[in-house]
């Protein structure tokens, strides 16, 4: 007998995967391998860009390299718009997810096999497009596994988040070993192998997903197909021309992505709020999502500095010597996933036990911003030290605080975006949450230019205090925000 309800969602009595629907294991798996390849590659990307040619790198200035990494990271989440639109209007989430996995494999192969700046350009564009399509739609597919009133939803998203971080833990460790022993392109090659494994695994399990995962909620009329093709070709040509004319350059990628993301977010909110296909309750919930969006931007602009400022900090300020052996720089990026793996189950169990008594989504977001700001203030005792003076245990402790903040916001944000979404904008509301990540990530790349190792106190203190103020502001506004959310907590 089928486990699918008439709505296409899994029945509440399907608890075969740690109390969650069995279909979750297939999305768990492909996302785990995608994160393995994504974080494995990103763990060595920044140092590849700014290391000298004699070290196997490209010799790009650190501030420019940080901007490229931030812009790339922001572009990944910005690409969720395209992935969400393709799912909602043309193909459905599950099909877009599958094709996106293929594109990611191609991108990692390009990074591994094509030398120099050309390989970086081709590889990062493909990985950004593929990861954007996969991320928004994997989350949306997870949402189809649960009925709207299923109290397992937040716990299921936390378990899904565990899969993300299993990949995020192993990726930087293994690519870091290959990079430090055989060279950067071997590390990029391992990322390609990992994503290929994820693609193969998912291709066998995708058929068992509920029918709701393949539904196109807002089909595009066939009469508009030609217009869409013309717009797509025009956009590609325009970007190519701007690159050739020098308008889009490596040193201004971050502010360009920031600007595009701000415009996209405003446009998205406007389109959803003005749509005649949503009712008053759905419209109110979208307004309730706005303060969560702003808080999320503040959070990610600090958190994503793990891949920009913290990478430079780990390369130059961190004492990575362990019993005469030097730990690869990328290994620092595996610390956070370790804590996620340990704590995600704890948080999932906590939300499950508390049930309807757990803190509301705005409270979780506000606490996340406050804790994230506090984590930046923890860098202050080590400010002004020389090279290799910060002990590894200090970074471990700071990243533990990062993790607590992340678990209060990221899986909760994914869940909230599906709960607050109007029926015809399910995947695109998930994309809106990822737009907040895109904006925060691009800002994290731009902020590298303001980081001065000789005078770190203003940098860490100002950013930390700003995040705390944003979090306190949201906590003070919890009641009106919940009123807008119309029964969603």
From TrEMBL:
Residues 1-482 form the Major facilitator superfamily (MFS) profile domain. It is a multi-pass membrane protein. Signal peptide: none annotated. NCBIfam families: yjdL_sub1_fam. Keywords: Cell membrane, Membrane, Transmembrane, Transmembrane helix, Transport. It comes from Microbacterium luteolum (Aureobacterium luteolum). CDD domains: MFS_DtpA_like. It comes from the Bacteria. Pfam families: PTR2 (PF00854). The chain crosses the membrane at residues 36-53, 65-87, 96-118, 124-147, 159-178, 184-204, 225-247, 253-273, 285-303, 331-351, 363-384, 390-409, 430-451, 457-478. Belongs to the major facilitator superfamily. Proton-dependent oligopeptide transporter (POT/PTR) (TC 2.A.17) family. This is Peptide MFS transporter. Its main location: membrane. It is found in: Cell membrane; Membrane. InterPro entries: Dipep/tripep_permease, MFS_dom, MFS_trans_sf, MFS_Transporters, POT_fam, PTR2_symporter_CS.
